[in-house]
Hints:
Largest sheet of chain B: 2 strands, antiparallel
Distance between the termini of chain A: 57 Å
Order of helices and strands of chain A: HHHHHEEHHHHEEEHEHHHEEHH
Order of helices and strands of chain B: HHHHHHHHHHHHEEH
Number of strands of chain B: 2
Low-confidence stretches of chain B: none
Number of domains of chain A: 2
Oligomer: heterodimer
Number of strands of chain A: 8
Mean pLDDT of chain B: 90
Number of domains of chain B: 1
Number of helices of chain A: 15
Structural class of chain B: mainly alpha
Distance between the termini of chain B: 49 Å
Mean pLDDT of chain A: 89
Structural class of chain A: mainly alpha
Strand order of the largest sheet of chain A: 1-2
Largest sheet of chain A: 2 strands, antiparallel
Amino acid sequence: MDVLILARLQFALTIAFHYIFPPFSIGLGLILVFMEGAYLATGRPLYHAMTRFWVTIFGLMFAIGVASGIVMEFQFGTNWATYSRYVGDIFGSALAAEGIFAFFLESGFLALLLFGWDRVSPKMHFFSTIMVSLGSIFSAVWIIVANSWQQTPAGYHLVKTASGTRAEIVSFMDVVLNPSTIHRLSHVLSAAFQTGAFLVVSVSAYYLLKGRHREFARASLKIGLFMAVIAAPLQLLTGHASALGVARTQPAKLAAFEGHYAASAPGAMHLFGWINDQNERVELSVAIPGMLSWLVSGDSRTAVTGLNAFAPEDRPPVNIVFQTYHAMVAIGMALLALSLIGAFYWLRGTLAQTRWLLWIFVFAVGLPQLANQLGWMSAELGRQPWIVYGLLRTKDGISKVVGAGEVLASLILFSFVYLLLFALFIYLLDHKIKEGPIEEELGLAGKAVRQ
Amino acid sequence: MSLDLNTIWFILVGVLLTGYALLDGFDLGIGALHLLARKDEERRIMLNAIGPVWDGNEVWLVTGGGALFAAFPHVYATVFSGFYLALMLLLVMLIFRAVAIEFRSKQPMLWWRRTWDISFSVTSVASSLLLGIALGNIALGVPLRPDFEFAGSFLGLLNPYAILVGVTTVSLFMMHGAIYLLLKSEGDFHEKVRVWVRGTIIFFSICYTVASMATLLFAPHMVATIKAHPILFVVSLLNTLAISNIPREIYHGRDFRAFLSSCAAMVALMTLFGIGMFPDIVVASNNPANSLTIYNAASSHETLSIMLVIAIIGVPLVLTYTASIYWVFRGKVKLDRFSY
């Protein structure tokens, strides 16, 4: 196989695996702030036990997130050296800022979170929880800044140097607040909150179904559901804002989202469909004519730029972008419905007895994860064939001195490593969930010591 | 020597990597010594001596990598793509190491713990060795093309000099880790660690002497700057004094001062390395004109200034909470239910 495909596969594997964990820790981090805040405010041992239990789950997520994240930091240089030379002046700053402002904050205060219960005051511990949560959010900020700059480069100029042309910074503010940063960041963050919320909802629903840790499960479910109900409509809003942004800044990607080929015509929105790239049509579809135009401009007759406005070599792969985008939207809707149904039963006071819904909640933890992966795929595949939109093609970004054999070797190596890591993660997560919160703590305040 | 932005960033990246060596150095070293402890409780004390801090220590490497990318993107690109397989191996080792630390004590089964104990130790030695080999090759110089791309091979990186630097790094980290463990342990185990400290000091002294002679013989450019500016010989002198002071403090039972001496020795060693390289970052062994320097490999003046502002805001924060964490977790390791 050729080195470009292998390098792209390796990047996709690395980031897809890594991206399982940060949304969990960003979402769960914020929930921990609520739980521990509730403990400090009320002094109820229940909240203390909740915080302790979820902190151990957080620790597990974080450990694997760090282990897989180190690869992310280095593989721009290993596999994408030409890209690194081209964008280092801009992209490198965002990564370095992430290290200085986010990673140190997270990893430092995580030590207090995990091991500091008996060493610092409850207030200091709460402060650490806030810092860890902030750190995980800062980390998202800087990485989205870097990635958004790839999507919608701004604040740079191209400079010829002895070693070739490269992008150099003109305005740091324009780089950070490039046209897609804000709506992509808000979409990613609310997705992370939703992911964390559904993790808590899932585990709590499981306990309720098994009749274990009832009080603990009810209280956790309440907090998780509360966050899910807020995050789900936020996802719709930020998703819509993102799509508007894409329409403005990356018309080829938007056209691929909806399989809109005609160079300039009103666009339809498809509920589902299959792209026939030869005939340039969407088949087997149910479509609302003019809906795409209406969503983008408020008028169903507005012309939307289609794929035919771009040379074939400048178009993203249409069907996969179409499918991943539509699947993500469908899951988003399902999560909204689930959150609202859950809230309805909660308000009626019968959620804990509604077993069919609890069973759905147990498995629903996979849905935000799936939506995260699909959304990321549609965003990044929709950016193709560019590695930096409009400036540098993906095929021109790879390392010149790394051969297909080397990439294949590392790809196989990392496939095994990630498989093992994932198996261990599931095994330990399952173990921790089965073990549950420390029961005796539910009735005692503070420092009950287990023998 | 005028202190321009490029020089400042050369020093700052050096500071980050030195911070990494000082901090992750002791936890890699403790990993290398791990199998010497025979009892489960002793091994748990070793793991918990680094428990709250090891992942924060690793962040120094990640941030060092990020700073290198931001300040000297050509070095980042050339070295990481050139040392491809070696770096991938290092990444796999670091991942496994993290996993071993995290998972080892989660289950009581003997086979489970033994497997992770071996992984922890092997990956710690391998990570230190690979880092040292990379350092050795940078000191020796590697073949570079005029377009800055690496022109060597993976096997070429495994030359005797680089391996010697690799082994020296392992020995340095083992000594550093053993001394750190003295601060963290008590009772019988503490006395056992004292014996390890003696052994590792001897191991390191032998490696250090041989590596120094090899550097004079095979990488003489590393000492050219000191030859030209004899005042810099002070750094060599301080390095030697710091190293010699370690056994002295150990003999008098002043373990913390021994640890500080070990830190001082590492800072001096990294300073000597920096002086030897400056103003090059990667020396082209085939043609000096192809070398990557702090000027031709750097980001724009604008980026270096912005990054300096970020560093001025960020570094004091980082130092403050790193110091606070070490302060909170000071003293001997006590195993409790939060422990590994």
